[in-house]
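ok so for the tutorial part 2 we go from a plain amino acid sequence to predicted structure tokens. step 1 is just haveing the sequence, like this:
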Amino acid sequence: MDSSLSLQGVCNVSGWGVIRAQGADAASFLQGQLTNDVLALNASHARFAGFCSAKGRLQASFVVWSEDADSFLLACSSSLLAPTLKRLSMFVMRAQCRLSDASGEIVLRGATGLTAEAWIADADVWARRDRNGATAIRLPDAAGLRRALLVAPAAVADVAMPAAGLSIEAWRWLDVQSGIVTIEAATVDRFVPQMVNYEIVGGVDFQKGCYPGQEVVARSQYRGTTKRRTLLFDSDEVASAGQDVYASAVAGEPVGTVASAAARPGQAGGSALVELRLAALDGSLHLGAIDGPVLRRAKLPYAVALDAEPIT
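step 2 — the prediction. this is what the tokens look like for a chain of 312 residues:
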């Protein structure tokens, strides 16, 4: 049997929550907070975006789409929902925008393979399709499979969307294989967007107006060679987000951080997206300690320039 069949289907996306931003100023408020262009959102598209500190470090990441002209939904790691909601609320001030936790009102399901294709056909990544009272957002492909995020109000989810059957472990592994880092509690304040390839995967708009950390993010883009990037690795041991990575050529200090990780479905070991000094690629990389499990380089689904200076 084709092993890819075990990666096809629908699952409930546990580990994610939903924030609602609602009001006459909701779009302009989010435009001033996130790394991507919210004002350009329409009923046919979603956005991937980051929320940064004043120092340009990612505090959260979102998939953002509109319910209507004055209401937006932001899906993020549930481990960050409460602190992110609190932090965003500090900036609302006089804006006509109300922020709330909508996780209990919205059901998220992940669709892969043929089911995803049935919902989003040949639409571009981050395109949106509505039908049967549900919304489908095309996510980046992973392991050669089409993927979509299916969204519906909790009251109609079981009627509007296909039933779940895919394991959450398979979905999380495909998330890692897609090369998209989801910021979670263990990785808050660790990365400038370029360190986790956000400008490559469409998570940063350099033409939009200001947002927290915008000057730092812009400087990181235009100052020259990027010396840190996120790459995909396999390992015989399952990594965890926030775990240190060491290089054989650099004694005593970590050279990178696991940004996202997941177990390999039905097999030993796992895969990880690792943010690291590119110069460290000259030696072997190890998980957790200099003599820890070896990390084996795997192929990302998009190109990353690897022009780094040698280790000194």
